[in-house]
Amino acid sequence: MSSISGQLSSIRFSGKKQSSSSAEVRLVLLGKTGSGKSSTANSILGSNVFDSKVSSSSVTQQCHRVSGEFHGRNITLLDTPGLLDTQQTLQEVQKELRKSISLLYPGPHAFLLVIQIGRFTQEEKDVVRQIKQAMGAYAFSFSVVVFTHGDLLEKGTSVKQSLIDGCKDLADLVAGCGGRYCVFNNKSSKNKDQMSEVLALVDSMMLENGGIWYSSKMLKDAEEELAKEQQEERRLMDKNVALLEKKQEAVIKELYGKQLEMVQLKSKMEMEELKKKIQLEKKKEEKLSREREEAFRREMEDYVKKEKDTKTQEMVRLMEKRIGEEEEKMNALQEKLDKVTKMLKDQEEQEDKIRRAMQKNIQKEREENEKKEREKEFQQIQKEQPSRQREKMRRDTLQRDLDKLTLSLKDQSMKEEDRKRQMEVLIRREREEKQRERDIQMENMKTEKRRTLALQQELKSIRRKVEQQKETNENLKRQLEENLRMDREKCIIEMSALKKQYDKKPCTETIKKRSAEKHSTLTAVTGFAQEMGLLGLNAALETVGAPCCIL
């Protein structure tokens, strides 16, 4: 009921709201043939306006609209043809309903579902299902169940006790109509009371529905929904037909495949037997030829021993004769082998012909089966259109349930496969990313290794240069020390000579000053040599790109 209320709230704009006690009430009578719709309409209007009589065929062939008045309210009543006539299809029912809405513009306030008191038969269940399919599920929100032939009820019993409580389908129908039902006795004189009860139910229903009526838009929505369902049914039917054709084709292929395997197996066995016979004959001939050759060799040896000198020409002749006989036998054996080879080729050609003939038969039988299926389907449609529709609906309902379950299982398996594929993709991506990271790390390590090797080589060259510089410095130092020593010796010699010549103070000061100048010169030269060595070492470190220097 909550879903119906939601649908009604979404389509309230389709009709103008009226008060629950509108001055005009538009009603439509629905029901199967012979349920008493016309009699009920006459009872509501209080006059015999509609033709009512007991008949197995529908008395009302087209929609018939009549207006009347009850307690100052205009009652417009529309009687419809029986909805379960053998000629009626869902499209024809929808056409009549569309006509009823146009005749009761802007739309009926209520549908009176007329059901005869008695056993709620399968035909009446089909009527309810047909109405629901043609008008939509929310059509029962605008419906009231009217039970006719109330005089058939036993005294002291009600419809609820005798019918509704004892039949689940009928109870579901009444519950779908919001529990709205009433009993009509068309033979009773209390028509006004019955009519008051019907109007009270219609007023309460209009109050629940917010004063709207069943509009053409609601019917259009129901038609679109029905078209979708029929399209889905056709698709499922085509799918089932295709599956049956595939199964039939597979059975035919399997049958002919087995026959072909039997023929091939038989021919293979015959060929193997022939090969074995040929091999046996060949072995026998080879054995005989070896025996003959051995016998001939022994004879020749004996003959040579006995008549070595006298019969050489006769022996040669006999050898040539024997060789000729052997060649003739080998040629005969070759001819037999050629015949067997030809026979095998003929056998293969025969198998190819049989295979092509089987394929042609399969194609021919498939076309004949398809033609027969189409003819059967057409004849069945021609002969059993209405009953076929009902049977099809019941069968398709079960098929839809099965297909829904199958689809749900397929969807679940597809989702599982999708999740599995996603996990595989994620795992593969993670592996690729890790592999890329490892490759980058390996590349970086190789680069660092190359740089380290280059630095080591450069350090080795720097060390060599430093050692060379040290050697150069040591050589310079030795030379300077040697020069200094020589200068000192000269100074000492000169000083001793000067002391001898001059023994005065000014001379001593002059000597000291000269020796100090020489010492300062030696210190400057040594510092210059050390500074030049440090400069060379720092220049080498700069070429390497080292972040340090030597001060």
Short description, anyone?
This protein is α/β, with parallel strands linked by helices and 551 residues long. The protein has helices at residues 2-10, 37-45, 90-103, 122-135, 159-164, 168-176, 191-208, 216-306, 312-383, 385-501, 505-544, and strands at 24-30, 64-70, 73-79, 110-116, 143-148, 181-183.
Q: Can you walk through the features of this model?
A:
- The structure is a single chain.
- The protein has helices at residues 2-10, 37-45, 90-103, 122-135, 159-164, 168-176, 191-208, 216-306, 312-383, 385-501, 505-544, and strands at residues 24-30, 64-70, 73-79, 110-116, 143-148, 181-183.
- It has 3 domains: 2-214, 3-Layer(aba) Sandwich (Rossmann fold); 233-383; 393-544.
- Strands 2-3-1-4-5-6 form a 6-stranded mixed sheet, covered by helices on one side.
- The longest helix has 117 residues, at 385-501.
- Helices cover 72% and strands 7% of the residues.
- Mean pLDDT is 74; it is low at 1-20 and 53-60.
- By secondary structure, it is of the alpha/beta class.
- Residues 22-223 form the AIG1-type G domain.
- Residues 363-404 are annotated as: Disordered.
- It comes from Eleginops maclovinus (Patagonian blennie).
- Pfam families: AIG1.
